[in-house]
Amino acid sequence: MAFLKLDPKECSPLGRFVLAYMEETGTSMNQLADRAGVTRPGLRKMCLIRGNPTESSLIRLAHAMGVPPAQLYKLAYQNKIENPYNPDAIDFFINGVDTVHKALHEIASQLPENQRPSDNELLESAIKTIKSSFAT
User: Fold this and answer.
1) pTM, entire model
2) 104-132 pLDDT, tens digit each
3) Which of 88, 59, 94 is CA-nearest to residue 73?
4) Spatial separation of the C-alpha atoms in residues 77 and 61, rounded to whole Å
5) Which of these, 26, 39, 42, 54, is most buried using a 10 Å CB contact count?
């Protein structure tokens, strides 16, 4: 389970399924996130007990793993029943950063390659954007 530096005890049923898949297939978290079209932090968050994956993320992850989306829906639903959770401010902050980062990445991908900011620069911009929205 070294691929996902996460204690299985912190994982939701979906997270444990993803850990098992990664271990069985020798797939890294980065590889799976790339194939699913989600960020690595987004995939990690989906795997946590407090995770609340979106329908579209579950569909993309299912396709990347080669399993029916219904199988992942069932695991996500099972987690909601077993571990009800109300998001707090940090969850909203992380979701905001993830959303802005994705948008900035999409915009940057349209720039010529030599003008594109690095992923770290995009992430820093996303964090600054979300922090400024909390300050107002």
Assistant:
1) 0.60
2) 999 999 999 999 998 889 888 988 998 88
3) 59
4) 15
5) 42
